[in-house]
Structures are given as C-alpha cells and as structure tokens.
Specification:
Helix content is 32%, strand content 16%. It is of the alpha/beta class. The chain has two domains: 261 residues, Periplasmic binding protein-like II (D-Maltodextrin-Binding Protein, domain 2, 3-Layer(aba) Sandwich), CATH 3.40.190.10; 97 residues, D-Maltodextrin-Binding Protein, domain 2. Strands 1-3-4-5-2-6-13-7 form an eight-stranded mixed sheet, sandwiched between helices. It is globular, with a radius of gyration of 20 Å.
C-alpha cells in the first residue's frame, strides 16, 4: 500500500508476511565506490562541513523507498552502506557532483518505524535533521506539542487521487461525476470523504473507510471509487495487477481542495535556530537535488530499487513503478515551480493559510486535532530558499 491520507490506519500489504520478511533481512552491505566525488571548495555554497551541519545529516521518510523521495536518495554518494536491519542507507552527501564534507543517512518509514508519524520520530530521536512531514500532519503534531517547520517543498502538489473503472462509469471524467452516482468512496481514513462531503460532492452514507491497501476490493467490485496516487496506481493497475491489466480513471484531489504540501522537508521547531547556519546551504542543495533528480532519475531509481530489495519488508517496487512515478511527477504537474513566485521549493503563504483554514475543522471533527490549532505561519519558512532554483 502506498502512503495514505492522514488518519489512515496505514496497514501494509500482507503485513504479516512483511514482518516475517523483515526478520529475515539483516546485516549491512557496502557499495564498492567506483570513484569518490571530488571535495567541495572550502567555504563555498556546497561545503556543508564549514556551515556547521551535523557530521551525518539524517533524513527520515514516512514510507518505503520510492521515486517520490527522489531528492533524498539522490544525494547519497558513492561508497554508501545499506543497513537492512535499520532500513537505512548512509553515504557521503554528494550534491551537484561534489562531496559536501558530511554524510547523509536516509531512513525509511512505514512498517519500519511502526507507522509512527514522522514528527513523533523526530522528537524521539533528536539526531534526525529533516523529516518528510505532510502539512496536515504538521497541523496535528503542532497541536500535540511536537511542532515542525517545513523549510522547502519537494513535491508541489499532492498526487492523491480517487480512481474508478471507466467501463463501470462510461463517459465520466471527474470525481464529482462518479461520486454523484452514489457509489461507495473507499478510503483508509476520514479526511478524503470529509473534504468531499463538505463540498456536497458526496453523501456521508457513501463513505467507506475499509480500504486496506490491496486491489482485491476494486477488482471484485469495480463500481466503487478508491483512493490511490497518480504517481503509482495508474501504472500498477494497468501493468502489474494480473486480475486487472487495463486503464483506470482518476482525478487528483488537489482539484477539490486537497491543498497540502506532500512531504516537504521539515525540522523540529525548537532546533530551527541551531540549524540555521546549516540550512542556509543545505536547503538550496535539496531544492536543486529534486530538480537534478527529475532531469536524470535513472541512477537514483536504481538505488531505490536496490534498497527495496535489500530491506525485504514485503514492499514491492519495480523499475517500471519508479520510472512511471518520476515521469508523472512532471507530466502531472505534481512537481513544479511555486505558481505564486516561480521559485522551486518555495511555499505560497496564501496556500498555507487556506490549507490550515480548510483542514483544521476537518481534523477537529474527526477527533484527530484536539489541542489548539497552529497558525499557518508557524508551520513553514521561506528564509532559506534560493530564489534562483527553478525547474526549467
């Protein structure tokens, strides 16, 4: 199962099998470096050691390795070590072809961390520098006294979709049209149906939160609508699910106010000042890393596939999945320059305010947000953004 919306009981596909496989995969392995990257010029913009960055910059993802996390994995340089027990990869942090003088460790999430929210992990383990924290999760975590500050976006628009069978809904091309037929809307959490109910696109009686991440329900009952990701399910259902093997219809939920920033890089709020000298160089590096990854995704996708094979968690990910995701991130407009400023990785203040205003009532109604709601301004900062970094 791919990452799901907040409030989802993020159950892995064949979870029991995953636990068995995770117990079997153990130990570490080191890549034989064909050539070490040259050292960054001392004191320059790529010298992270001089900037006072941690000796190892730890990046925590919220899910298994996949192409949506391309920037993080793209800065893992040659000579890396894979720890299949901890589900992490560590190597020199290489940016724009040079060694920045520090290491990077990328940790997988999901079942590997007991499905804990990334902010909780960041407050348990202060060695984590960056966490991938969705905006809705940041709202909840701030209220729970685990506040984070997003410092740069990676994906600009959420690829969360609702999908349907075109044959069961001929001529229909939008979520609104299909939901208007009264069919069940199957999700693994309450936020998606609550968002659509608030706009009278679907009735409360249509909500079905029993989605377990497997294709079984959709294949056996193709009249339903089901959640998914534009960067994954269209390819998987057409090419990898033997019982389906045909196109699906879908529409991004961003068209209906699902305005969160998906997995922006965030730091703990109480560590922002301490990390500021480092972030002045590291944030532009991560902006450029995403741009560079999407120009040439092949090498990083190869590492991602290797990690999935090494971790043995029951998560399945193919080269086809990775290639489709990287291409769709651009073609689908999910990774693009900030429309308001034209800068890649920058947050739009108006969008952040709208997201908080929209999602706070939904989270409160669901019982997930129980403390005081944070302000939009407290959830992000653009102070480290390099305004010269843009997707061409």
């Amino acid at each position: 199962m791919r990452r799901t919306a907040l409030l989802a009981p993020r159950i892995a596909v064949a979870l029991a099998a995953a636990l068995v496989l995770a117990a079997c995969g153990s130990g570490t392995s080191t890549e034989s470096a064909t050539a070490a990257a040259p050292t960054a010029p001392a004191g320059g913009p790529l010298d992270l050691k001089a900037a006072g960055c941690p000796a190892t910059v730890v990046m925590q993802q919220d899910w298994q390795p996949e192409a949506e996390h391309g920037a993080m994995y793209s800065v893992v340089g040659p000579g890396y070590t894979i720890d299949s027990d901890k589900k992490s990869v560590t190597g020199p942090l290489v940016a724009q072809g040079v060694d920045t003088g520090v290491k990077v460790e990328v940790r997988a999430g999901g079942s590997n961390t007991g499905f804990q929210p990334v902010p909780a992990l960041m407050y348990i383990d202060p060695s984590i520098t960056f966490g991938a924290v969705n905006t809705d999760q940041a709202i909840v975590s701030a209220a729970a006294k685990q506040p984070t500050v997003a410092v740069t976006s990676q994906m600009t628009v959420s690829p969360q979709i609702l999908m349907w069978d075109p044959a069961s809904h001929p001529g229909m091309t939008t979520v609104k049209q299909v939901a208007g037929t009264g069919v069940p809307v199957v999700t693994s959490g309450e936020i998606i149906p609550a968002l659509l109910e608030s706009q009278r696109i679907m009735a409360k009686s249509q909500a079905d939160t029993s989605y377990d991440g497997t294709p079984a329900r959709f294949v056996s009952d193709p009249k339903i609508m089901q959640q998914g990701f534009a960067t994954a399910e269209p390819y998987i259902y057409e090419n990898e699910i033997a019982q389906w093997k045909k196109p699906i219809g879908s529409e991004p939920l961003s068209n209906y106010g699902y305005s969160i920033y998906p997995e922006p890089l965030a730091v703990r709020s109480d560590k922002l000042a301490e990390l500021t000298p480092c972030l002045k160089k590291l944030v532009p590096i991560m902006q450029q890393a995403e741009v560079d990854y999407l120009k040439t995704p092949g090498p990083t996708n190869g590492l991602i596939i290797k990690l999935v094979d090494s971790y043995q968690t029951g998560w399945s990910y193919t080269a086809g999945d990775a290639d489709f995701s990287a291409a769709t991130q651009i073609k689908g407009g999910f990774v693009k320059n900030d429309p308001a400023s034209g800068v890649f990785g920058q947050f739009d203040p108006a969008r952040m305010k709208d997201t908080v205003a929209r999602f706070v009532p939904l989270l409160q109604a669901a019982g997930t947000l129980t403390g005081p709601a944070p302000t939009a301004d407290s959830l992000y900062t653009n102070q480290f953004i390099d305004k010269n970094v843009k997707l061409s």
